[in-house]
Amino acid sequence: MYQNKATPTTFVRNFIGMIKVPLISNTSFIIRQLPTPTAFVDTNYNIVQTSDKWTSIFNENEESNKSNSLFAVFPNLSHKWKMVLENCFKGNPQPMGIHKTIDTKGQDIWFEWTNAPWYDANENIVGAIIQLNNITDAVNNELELNKKELLLQQQTEITKIGRWEFNMEDNQLFWCTTTKSIHEVSPDFKPNIETALFYYKEGHSRNTISMALFEAQDKGKPWSNLKLQIITATGKEKWVMAGGKPIYNKGKMVGLIGTFQDIHEQVEADIKIINNEKLLRTLIDNLPVNVYIKDTESRKVLINKAECEYLGVNDPKEILGKNDFELYPSESAEKSRAEDLRVMKTLKPVIAKETVNTRLDGKQTSFLSSKIPLLNGKGIAYGLVGISLDISKLKEKEKELRNIINIASVQNKKLLNFAHIVSHNLRSHSANFSMLLNFLESEKDEDEKKSIVAMLTKASNNLLETLDNLNEVVSINTNTNIEIKEISLNEKVEDACQNLSPFILDNKATLENKIPENFIVKSVPAYLDSILTNFITNAVKYKHPNRDSYVSLSAEKKGNYAILTIKDNGLGIDLDKYGEKLFGMYKTFHDHTDARGIGLYLTKNQIDAMNGKVEVTSKVGKGTEFKIFFNEKN
Amino acid sequence: MKKISDITIIDDDAITVFGLRKLISTSIECNSIESYANGKIALDALTNFFNNNQQIPQIIFLDINMPIMDGWEFLEAFIELPITNKIRINIVTSSIDPRDKQQWEHYKDKSHHLITFNQKPIDRNKITEITQLA
């Protein structure tokens, strides 16, 4: 125990004996001031002297420092150092490398160790001088760099973004493994700038990258996000995203670095999406129906061409984002909004509902409209798709058809009615004939016979007259090519009054023509004559016994009609009683000897034939007013 | 055959009136035959008879198509008169309009009088058949 303990003491003694102690003490304060951590060790590995810098780092008290063995301070390093130091003692200093120690504050400190033999004045090696170079920052930087490198590599692998570097000085091109794998070349492939360009697809891609490369080299212009196509080593077409920029050293362009990303799947997916969108767009734009999509606030977020046209805009952007209240009158909008909410709440679609939609400009359109809720992944409606088929024309056609059916049915009724009239009239005459002939056959009395023959003659005349009347009715109703002309109503009235003047004078009637001189009606001239004659005659004929007849004629235009009003102060007609029969054939309502019941019937037929109508108002004892409507559309 | 007192013809056609008169007078025994040119004149006359407690004709020949008041209007008013006797009303018409037949059925069911519907021409046999007391 003692011997072991005594051994270092012996060394020190020897050491001190070998070097001159005063030398040490003289130089010791110089050593202490050395700017780098420095230690002097003797050949027994004992620390003889240290700089203050060293002491401050390892914080040993000076006593122990001086007496302690180097290996006591750095127990981890003993073996390797021993060999290095031994060589140093022999005059062959070797690098000691970089070692980590822990400072007094417990932090990692990296040092580069250097050593040099320690010569005494006689050039004898008495130990070694160890100097430490604190390289903690450098090591940390390097560690950081390694980390970054690793990160970059990982990132490259994950994002499939490759790197490349082009050194302009030696014309060397570097591809990282990812870049190589994108090109589908082997890992040991050596690219150069020409082959690299050659991988780009001929045409747009190769031209673009060549241009970018040229501009980068020529003008220092970087490029980024170029979507280009390459043909890989195995002949596959691939979409890549390329970027690059010049790098400088001391203001001089020395090369280019850049990225190279495989975006094939993405581009393909994008292309597919674009194609699908195009297909969908083409489809909905060319559908002959209005299509739109609304969000939960009933704002239009998509509309097709037909809907654009309906709303009178060229660009859908003018409509998108607008709700119904901005596009339609509030009443329509409220209805539509309520329906939207119901569809989105109940998730029940509205299918092919017939609606009438009013635009802001007041135009009404009939639609067969459907509203289908759009559901998200959770089954909640996030909007709705609307499909509306414009059926206005169909509706119009339907209306026309209905009109035609109505006209046809009215015509049919008229025909049937006429058939009954004809049959009734002819039958009544033929019945009379047959009866009278029967009498004649069995009659013996000559006077009676003469009387029967007279009756027969009368019956024959009646039949002829009836046939004339019927013929007239038939000709009005069958003459479809009646020629309608524009006629001055005033002039025609004057003519009629002229023709009827004896009759008017006889009845002491006054006629007042209030029709403007330039008033034109569209009518068949002969029908107008007949209408005027009939109505004027009737007005005068059925005058009130207590007063002279006064008839006024006036005219106005209203809607599609020119209206002639003939007003008298005559007997009047009980319309409640006779209204329906007023224009019937052989209907007379006054006890008047020359009432035949054919005039108004014919007139009515003539007016009907010209698509006109007649209205009548009357008060018994006061007078009658007829309004004859001439259709302006003829 | 029971003797018929009074017969009335309501028709605006002089020839028909002449014919009916001739047929009736040569085949039926009756006191009088009156004729009226339309429903209005006939109704006024008959209402007058009724109000003055005079004999209402037992048989009436009635035309449908007449001016001023036609056969139906006459019937409408006539059946409203509170006549207890059952009167025979023979509608005589040349109409084949089904609506006229419907009208007839309407009034036939509405009234206690006997109302018949006859189409022209009327011959001697027919007149004997329909000129019997109701």
Task: Explain what you see.
The complex is a heterodimer of chains A (634) and B (134). By secondary structure, chain A is an alpha+beta fold. Helices cover 47% and strands 26% of the residues of chain A. The longest helix of chain A is centred in the middle third of the chain and has 51 residues, at 392-442. Chain A is built from 21 helices and 22 strands. Chain A folds into 5 domains: 2-134, PAS domain (Beta-Lactamase); 141-268, PAS domain (Beta-Lactamase), CATH 3.30.450.20; 287-390, PAS domain (Beta-Lactamase); 396-478, Helix Hairpins (Orthogonal Bundle), CATH 1.10.287; 485-631, Histidine kinase-like ATPase, C-terminal domain (Heat Shock Protein 90), CATH 3.30.565.10. Chain A is rod-shaped, with a radius of gyration of 61 Å. Chain B is of the alpha/beta class and 134 residues long. Chain B has a single domain (4-127), classed as Rossmann fold (3-Layer(aba) Sandwich). In chain B, 41% of the residues lie in helices and 22% in strands. Chain B contains 5 helices and 5 strands. In chain B, α2 runs parallel beside α3. The longest helix of chain B is centred in the first third of the chain and has 14 residues, at 14-27. The mean pLDDT of chain B is 88. Chain A binds chain B through residues 420, 423-425, 427-428, 430-432, 434-436, 438-439, 455, 458-459, 462, 586-591, 595, 597, and chain B through 13-16, 18-19, 22-23, 40, 65, 67-68, 93-97, 119-123. Chain A: It holds the Pfam family PAS. Chain A: Residues 421-634 form the Histidine kinase domain. Chain A: It catalyses: ATP + protein L-histidine = ADP + protein N-phospho-L-histidine. Chain A: One of its GO terms (molecular function) is protein histidine kinase activity. Chain A: It is an enzyme of class 2 (transferase). Chain B: Residues 6-134 form the Response regulatory domain.
